[in-house]
Amino acid sequence: MLFDESYSGKVFIMSRATEEEADTVIYGMPMDWTASFRPGSRFGPGRIREASIGLEEYSPYLDRHLEEIDYHDAGDIMLPFGNAQRSIDMIELYIDRLLDKNKMPLGLGGEHLVTWPVLKAMYRKYPDLAVIHIDAHADLREEYEGEPLSHSTPIRKACELIGPENIYSFGIRSGMREEFSYARESGMHMSKFEVLSPLEQVLPSLAGRPVYVTIDIDVLDPAFAPGTGTAEAGGITSKELLGAIHEISDSEVQVVGADLVEVAPAYDPTEQTQIAASKFVREMLLGFTK
Length: 290
Description:
The chain has about 290 residues and is α/β, with parallel strands linked by helices. It has one domain (about 5-290): Ureohydrolase domain (Arginase, Chain A, 3-Layer(aba) Sandwich). The chain is built from eight helices and eleven strands. It has helices at about 45-50, 85-100, 115-125, 155-160, 175-185, 195-200, 240-250, 270-290; strands at about 5, 25-30, 60, 65, 70-75, 105-110, 130-135, 165-170, 190, 210-215, 255-260. Strands 1-5-2-6-11-10-7-8-9 form a nine-stranded mixed sheet, sandwiched between helices. A two-stranded antiparallel ribbon has the order 3-4. α5 links the parallel β8 (about 165-170) and β9. α1 crosses α8, α2 packs parallel to α3 (about 115-125) and α7 runs parallel beside α8 (about 270-290). About 50% of the residues are buried.
């Protein structure tokens, strides 16, 4: 069985009954096999779904209601515990299937390595793909302690696959000196510390292009999202991240897929991290589903 149905109906609020009628498919990638500091993001997808029950179905930001779009929550991919290579192979296979059906995938992580197999599948369908990456960390390492499959490597892998000039990173405030040197010398776009203002400047240049959006919850300051594996002080506010999602939604880019990763609920007994994450997912659903 590919999907975990054990969550007994705990799906994202107002999820439609079938995949066939959906334009956007929500799916979980419960993997934290390469976490280098605090594991636990494999529990993120389920807790985001649970928190969504407290949401209003209407977005006053976008003046849209969830009943106006067709989306389906497929549940979590049943990934083999501890096996990073097989897990990413399974994710890639699933995304291929969704794209063959012309669905927009909206993934819930899980550690950030799960974005890598999604991008591989996306690039096959969209050879002119651009990536908007919103994160505290550069994720530009070639390996972490000798392991190339790591949550610190997906954006470097993406640069090597689609070309660094097609990668746009925002909010970055942590990484090795070599990562920042690579960003500067390779031709990729990296905006340190800030998200909204540099994003507004970049979006017109991406008009008409297929874009994949990946958001690591740790781009937020730990005051707004303590429930993550590698929290980093000095981040943006929840309001700023909502603003970034809305800027992308209102732009002329063609969002073809997205994910929200690195929610680790165990480190946030107040649940504010997953509550915020569920709201971001609602806004992504309403803003990115055309």
